[in-house]
Amino acid sequence: MRIKPKRSSVSAEPDMTPMIDMTFQLIAFFMVLLNFGESEMDARIKLPSSQLAKPPDAALEAPLVLQLTRDDQVIFAGDMLAIAALDQPLRKERRFLEIRGVEPSEATVILRADADAKGGIVQEVMQKCQENGFDNFKLRAKQEEADDTP
Questions:
Q1: How would you write the pLDDT of the chain (150 residues) with one tens digit per residue?
Q2: Would the pTM count as exceeding 0.70?
Q3: Residue 75 sits in which domain range?
Q4: Structural domain count, the chain
Q5: Would you say 67 and 74 are in contact if contact means Cβ atoms under 8 Å apart?
Q6: Beta bridge partners of 143
Q7: Does some domain include residue 10?
């Protein structure tokens, strides 16, 4: 009687569960680190060019982005608003900052005005902000490219 050798049923396939788990953790980690600054820029706003424009030195602590269109409308938090209707969202933002322990006067209002927007309208938006306690402003412009032609 002949005895057949037993074949091993051990599989050499690795367990992929820890690797998949680590991959999802890395995806979540990089999504948290993603810079969301570009989400506050609207393509409908064409910034004016300036030789004095330069990138900011550091990230702002409590920025509030207002974008002024050429049609005298303000884009704030994705909503298109008339300048007269700006008081209510600014009051909400002020309350939110106060809850976080930040004074509205410490927050920086980033004003992105279209190149064709009227200067008086920009002044009016700044006045609305000041009426609601926001005093720090940064105006955005597009940096002019250097002319390399001789």
A1: 677 766 666 667 888 899 999 999 999 888 877 655 545 565 566 665 655 555 555 566 668 888 888 888 888 888 888 888 888 989 998 998 888 888 888 888 888 888 888 888 888 888 988 898 888 888 776 555 555 444
A2: no
A3: 69-150
A4: 1
A5: yes
A6: 50
A7: no
